[in-house]
Amino acid sequence: MRRHGTSRTTLTWTALAAAAALTLGACGDGGTKEPQGPEGSTAAPRVQLPKLPGEKLEVAAVWTGPEQENFTKVLKEFEKRTGATVTFVPAQDPIVTFLGTKIAGGAPPDVALLPQVGALAAAVQNKWVQPLGPEAAAQLDANYSKGWRTLGAVGGTQYGVYYKAANKSLIWYNAKAFEAAGVKPPKTWKELITAADTLSASGTPAVSVAGADGWTLTDWFENIYLSQAGPEKYDQLAKHQIKWTDDSVKQALTTLGELFGRKDFLAGGQSGALATEFPKSVTQTFTGGDRPAAAMVFEGDFVAVNIAQTQAKVGEDALVFPFPAVGGKAPVVSGGDVAVALKPSKGAQALLTFLASPDAAEIHARQGGFVSPNKAVDPAAYPNAIQRDIAKALIAAGDDFRFDMSDQAPAAFGGTPGAGEWKALQDFLANPSDVAGTQAKLEADAAKAYGH
């Protein structure tokens, strides 16, 4: 999956109690609801869709691999109910550039899923997207909290449906590797570093870092920064009201360097991490029995999709704990992809209506590695207790959240491969001792992207 979603969201501390349920207690599989109807849909559809025989639609998103395959099952159900034909169009990062090219060529997709707040704002500013129709808006009003509805609006007009969310403050671990080293899930950053030392001394590198994908590095930084600097500073940095040369950024990078600076802590060392893409970072953590390439991997609930590509079982071989507290409170970061219509067609609005319904989300939820902000989704749709608890924590947060800072930033800084924050943090991973140089580069790139 692509990072940020996912447009990541930072949930406030009230969600922590729910998030804490993701620890050792949430290991079982119990209570999975059996699918009913085609592709695991419910037997009685809860949303009525128009008949669209012969209509052809295109849907663009940056999803690949299992994530794309699972979403295709949702689209297949839409086809069955409406008679339309839907084609998935793989998009590249940054998606605004991809869509701009399509629109300039006169061939925009009907619907796109945007993984950044900045992308939605840019699409509205460019007059690419259509407001939600009454049927889609009715589903949104019925199934989503005000906070999630607001996130899909620009200037008071509703444009988008947050179809997919993610809890981005999770560390997944190989149960056998932890057991072999005698390590327990850490609750603080200091305990994490101690555990990493013990794991590495036992012969298993502590962490698999997907350094080839810069978005994962922004997630590392943001979790540390939120916990260490606190929400006020976090909001200020997200808006570039304070500079990246601020002492709080120095502290966060120095803390991150405690992990990234230890070659023995990282699978393949710094150079190996920089050559590792996200899917491999997960699969190499859950293959090799009790001697995997690494004992832990950091990222969101969508990690479960990639674990499914191995022989490991979520809840048994693959367990999870919340991102450890660096400061007084552990961070809770989430995100989401917002679906928007790029064409004023009946089919595009019908698909948005479907994506705003629990029917679509439950089909996707049964596949694993997916969390919906739709509060009408039956928790039993999630395939195991771990994913159910992740979903419950998201819903329990209600309207108390703020968006991830890199997703609030202009795409040139916070969402472009090989540029801005992604590239600066990759350079930092290569040389974690250069905190001042990293700060200077981050500030120069941010000032240029924000226009000041």
TrEMBL record:
The keyword Phosphoprotein does not apply. The keyword Cytoplasm does not apply. Gene3D superfamilies: Periplasmic binding protein-like II. Residues 1-28 form the signal peptide. It holds the Pfam family SBP_bac_1. InterPro entries: Bact_solute-bd_prot1, SBP. PROSITE patterns: PROKAR_LIPOPROTEIN (PS51257). Keywords: Signal, Transport. Belongs to the bacterial solute-binding protein 1 family. This is Sugar ABC transporter substrate-binding protein. It comes from Streptomyces nojiriensis.
